[in-house]
Design brief:
alpha+beta, Globin-like, Heat Shock Protein 90, 2 domains, five-stranded mixed β-sheet, 7 strands
Length: about 400
């Protein structure tokens, strides 16, 4: 067989790469998994995403066949390279990993060129092989740059958002700390000025102020600790186990029984809630906060005050359940802010309801919901009550 021309050799190899794109993608994935101890579903969690690499390989083949047609910046293959960058950001990968993945792809394609040239007995010269490899390098470099740029953009945006949230959190925390600390400072100063037992009643009032504000500070610290634990718990999911949702809800209700009795609230847990595999600590925190809120803001004007945990539906993949009450409810404006840290819909009623809170409970619920891969919706109406609907995976992702 006579040696091929440059264009003939490139076109032949391009056709072989396009035909074998799924096989080449499998080789790439096998090598990647051999180097990084993860399962295929951790690299590409859906079939649509798993199809990314074959499509990228196909576009590289087209570029080899017609090198003068550059890969357009608005082409779908560039869009998929961007999507790959977003996926790797969500998976907490690194730029080094991205570069390594594309280097593996380049290596596999280069090896395939040599294998096919020998198998098909094309007898190319060194310059022809080098030209094809250079074209592969060019295409892979463009896709690498697109993916990495997208990854860095998402990473930068995440850092900026976290910085913004941290600044807002620090401002709100300073506000929450200032009031009890000022009260403690004032009370301690006045206590030092009281001499003897002449003003025992005044002394007792000041001691009560101290105790109340110390309790408030302790509650604030405990709440922040829970928030931190929910946000920074490691990915090994040490609390993940199979548990009866009914049993867990009953345990959360038992912890709040004294509060419920004092406010004459009935706690009802449906007996037919399914078993779920979940981070038990986070789910218990979700239930406890939702039940506690419902009890606190029960409607004292209603003779029958009830808080229920009930099943909406359950199948092999998801469980949908509700925490529902017939309490004070909320307006549409209040609903929009319900998960915002330090927002309290009924702060003006603290005195009459004899409640005091920091407005962090539902923010913690939202963090825990996100951490376990669940979702939450809330509906409410003034004086009618509030319903939180949680959609929970029955099994965690493998």
């Amino acid at each position: 067989m006579s040696p091929p021309t440059d264009d003939t050799f490139a076109a032949t190899i391009a056709a072989r790469i396009a035909n074998e794109r799924y096989h080449l993608a499998t080789r790439w994935l096998d090598r990647l998994i051999a180097l990084i101890p993860v399962g295929p579903n951790d690299v590409f969690p859906t079939e649509a995403l798993l199809d990314h690499i074959p499509r990228l390989i196909e576009q590289i083949a087209k570029f080899l066949a017609v090198p003068e047609n550059e890969i357009a910046s608005d082409s779908f293959v560039i869009a998929e390279a961007r999507e790959l960058g977003e996926l790797r950001h969500e998976q907490h990968a690194s730029v080094h990993q991205l570069l390594h993945e594309y280097e593996l792809l380049r290596s596999i394609l280069a090896t395939f060129v040599e294998e096919e040239a020998e198998r098909l007995q094309l007898n190319p010269n060194y310059a022809q092989v080098l030209l094809v490899i250079q074209r592969i390098d060019r295409a892979v470099a463009l896709l690498t740059q697109t993916t990495v740029n997208t990854f860095v953009e998402r990473y930068t945006a995440t850092i900026e958002e976290q910085t913004k949230q941290l600044k807002a959190f620090n401002q709100m925390l300073s506000h929450e700390l200032r009031q009890p600390l000022a009260a403690l400072q004032m009370a301690s100063t006045l206590l030092m000025q009281i001499e003897g037992e002449a003003d025992g009643e005044r002394r007792q009032r000041l001691v009560t102020v101290v105790e109340r504000n110390v309790t408030r500070l302790v509650d604030l610290v405990n709440t922040i600790t829970k928030m931190t634990a929910g946000r920074v718990a490691d990915d090994s999911k040490p609390g993940t186990q199979r548990v009866s949702l009914t049993t867990l809800a009953q345990e959360s209700s038992r912890q709040l029984r004294e509060m419920a009795v004092s406010r004459e609230v009935r706690l009802v847990v449906a007996p037919d809630l399914p078993d779920v595999t979940v981070d038990v600590g986070r789910l218990e925190l979700i239930l406890t906060n939702l039940l506690s809120n419902a009890i606190k803001y029960s409607d004292p004007a209603k003779p029958d005050r009830i808080v229920e945990v009930l099943l909406v539906r359950s199948d092999d993949s998801t469980c949908v359940f509700q925490v529902r009450d017939n309490g004070l409810g909320m307006t549409a404006e209040q609903l929009e802010k319900v998960f915002t840290p330090f927002f309290r819909a009924h702060a003006s009623l603290d005195s009459s309801l004899q409640v005091d809170g920091l407005g962090l409970g539902l923010s913690i619920v939202r963090d825990c919901i996100d951490a376990i891969g669940a979702s939450i919706d809330v509906t409410a109406a003034p004086n009618e009550g509030t319903t939180f609907t949680i959609t929970l995976p029955v099994k965690i992702a493998s």
